[in-house]
Amino acid sequence: MIRMSKQLEEEMLDNTSEEHDYVDDEDSEHVTGYEMWFAEAGNSNLNIDNQGQNKLTTVRCAAHTLQLAIRDACSELRDLLEQCRHIARLLRSPNNALQLGVQGLLQAIIDCPTRWDSTADMVERILLFKDFLSGRIEPVFQTFAVEDTWQKLKETLDVLKPCRVLSKTIQHEQLTFGDFYLAWLKCILEIENMNTVFAIFFVICMREREKALLENECFLGAIYLDPRVNSMLSNQQLELARAHLVQTYQIYLRLNSSVDVRETENETPDDPTPSTSSSMLDNFLQTQFRQRCQD
C-alpha cells in the first residue's frame, strides 16, 4: 500500500508539472501574439502619438458620467440620506407598515446606495409620508418634524427628476454623441433654472464631469461634425477636433490602400473582375484630400 501511494503521488506530481509546462507555453505564445500585434500596429501606424508609442483612444460611458456627477452632488446630502434610509427601515416594520396600509399609503422603499435612481425613489416615497411622520412623537422621527428637512428632500427630488429623463435618453440604441450632448445640456439648463442651493451645486458637479468629456478628441470630433452643438466648442477644442478628424481620415486612407495592395497581390492574371474595393466616394475624398495637402 505504501509503495502504491508513493507511485500515485509521483504520477500526480508529474501530471501537475506537465500542466504547468503547458500553461507556460500557452502564456508565452499569448505574449508573443500580443508582441506581434503591437509590432504590426507600429509598422502600419494605426494610432501613434507624438512620442511614437501605440495609443488606444476610448470614450467615457455616458451613463457612468451622469452617475459620477450625481454621486459628487449627493455627497453633500450624505447625512440626510442616511436618515431617510433609517426611517425607511423603521416604516417597513410590521406595525408601521400596517399603519401605513390603514391610511392607504404604500410601503417605504430602501434604496441601494450605488444606484442613484433607487435613492430618488426612496426620497419620493418618503415625501408621501409627510403627514404620517409629522404626527409621530417618537424621538427617532423628530428630524422629520422640521419643515427644513422636507424642503431639502423636495429640492433633492426636483433635481433628480431631469436626471431620470437624461438617464432614459442615453439608453436609446441609436444615440449619437450630439444627441447625448444635447440631452446633457438640457438637463443642466433645467436644473440651473431651479436656482436652489443644491441645484447650483449639482450643476457645478455636472460641469466638472463635462470637462473630462470635452478633453476627449473622439468626443470633440463627433461634436464638431454635429451642427446643432458644435458652436459650444472653443477655438482650441475646434482645432483639436479638426486635427483628430484629419488624423482619422489619414489612417483610413492608409488602411484602405494596404487592403487594395493585398487584394491586387491575391488576384490571378485570368481574373476578369477588377477590384472594386474603392468606391466613387473614396476616390473623390482622396482627390480632395490630396488637393488640400498641395494647397
What topology does this entry show?
Layout: H1 2-44, H2 62-74, H3 78-91, H4 94-102, H5 116-127, H6 130-134, H7 147-169, H8 177-192, H9 197-214, H10 217-224, H11 235-266, H12 280-294
Helix pairs in contact: 2-9, 3-5, 5-7, 7-8, 10-11
GO molecular function: zinc ion binding
Subcellular location: Nucleus
Keywords: Metal-binding, Nucleus, Zinc, Zinc-finger
Find the structural class using helix and strand composition.
mainly alpha
| Overall geometry | elongated
Secondary structure tally, helices: 12
H/E element string? HHHHHHHHHHHH
The stretches of 5 or more residues where confidence is low (pLDDT under 50) are 1-8, 15-54, 272-278
Please summarize the sheet with the most strands: none
Q: Into which percentage range does the β-strand content fall?
A: under 5%
- Helix percent reads over 70%
Mean pLDDT: 79
| Rg calculated over all Cα atoms | 31 Å
**In whole angstroms, how far apart are the ends?**
90 Å
User: What is the tally of beta strands?
Assistant: 0
Short précis:
The protein has 295 residues and is an all-alpha fold. Helices cover 71% and strands 0% of the residues.
Write structural notes for this entry.
The radius of gyration is 31 Å and the shape is elongated. Mean pLDDT is 79; it is low at 1-8, 15-54 and 272-278. It is built from twelve helices and no strands. The longest helix is centred in the first third of the chain and has 43 residues, at 2-44. Helix 2 runs antiparallel to helix 9 and helix 10 (217-224) packs across helix 11 (235-266). The relative contact order is 0.07. The chain starts with a helix and ends with a helix. It has 295 residues and is mainly α. It has helices at residues 2-44, 62-74, 78-91, 94-102, 116-127, 130-134, 147-169, 177-192, 197-214, 217-224, 235-266, 280-294. Among the domains are: 62-218, no CATH class; 234-260 and 279-295, no CATH class. Keywords: Metal-binding, Nucleus, Zinc, Zinc-finger. It is found in: Nucleus.
